[in-house]
Specification:
The protein has 13 helices and no strands. It is an all-alpha fold. It is found in: Cell membrane.
Length: 315
Amino acid sequence: MTTTTQASPVPSRWARFRDSYLVYSFKRDLVAQVCLATFVAMVLAAVLAPWLAPMNPYDLAQIDIMASELPPFWIDGSDPTYVLGTDAQGRDLLSTILYGARVSLIIGFGAVILQAMLGVTFGLLAGYLGGRVDAFLMRLADIQLSFSTLMVAIIVGAVIKASFGGAIYSEYAVIILVLIIGLAEWPQYARTVRASVLAERSKEYVDAARVMGFRAKRIMFRHILPNTLSPIFVISTVQIANAIISEAALSFLGLGMPETQPSLGSLIKSGFDYLQSGSWWITLIPGAVLVVLVLVINLLGDWLRDVMNPRLYKG
């Protein structure tokens, strides 16, 4: 009598993800759940701004200058049409916040994607090839890190604005800010990825890939890179918040988004001159939205860092 043993079915990727420690930790962390729900809601509101916003702040026909500086609905003298009031140009503040959050998120995500592309590539090359390539790229990163991101952004932004004029700068402001912020922060990724590659390149699977004759490019991107994704994800959450803050700071200094193209930073700047005249909502409400957005991203980053830290892994 013969008995046959059946191999247990291999769980699907979704099943492995559902049973992972990441999901286990998320289900038991109320702060992470609230932060993720808030972040998703803010992203969806920004993406769906053309359908959710009562007015289009880019459409001059919908702007009523006679309705400027109207207070929010809970203050006497408000207009029910404008729930959060209006700014100095007569634009509905709720609409400008929704459109402005979309611009800030586009700049934040775009800058981080550029940072990751440059930093991960340079980090892989420096860690795997070593030698002169490593020395050159790391000295370049050290030089970049010796200057603050905001100072580099201010200098480059001022030079571009003076060279091509304010009209050209305003037209391509989003692209320019993505390039400025992205090029200023790539060393954060490069140094982290390099450290991970130095730990991975001496392991057996890398030696096996070399023996099989795989090229260095395939070994770096197909074998080593997937094992360095955890710190990359953690850095990205922090860098998105930093990029949004950098955009707001540049806009406040007059080197970011123009007032005709609302972002959270340009909205804060446009209402700053009206604080002492009593129209505090023009600055404080977009400022509160910016604080909440950056806070939930940072809290999610802290949670992700703790979950992906192998020293804190509970099994």
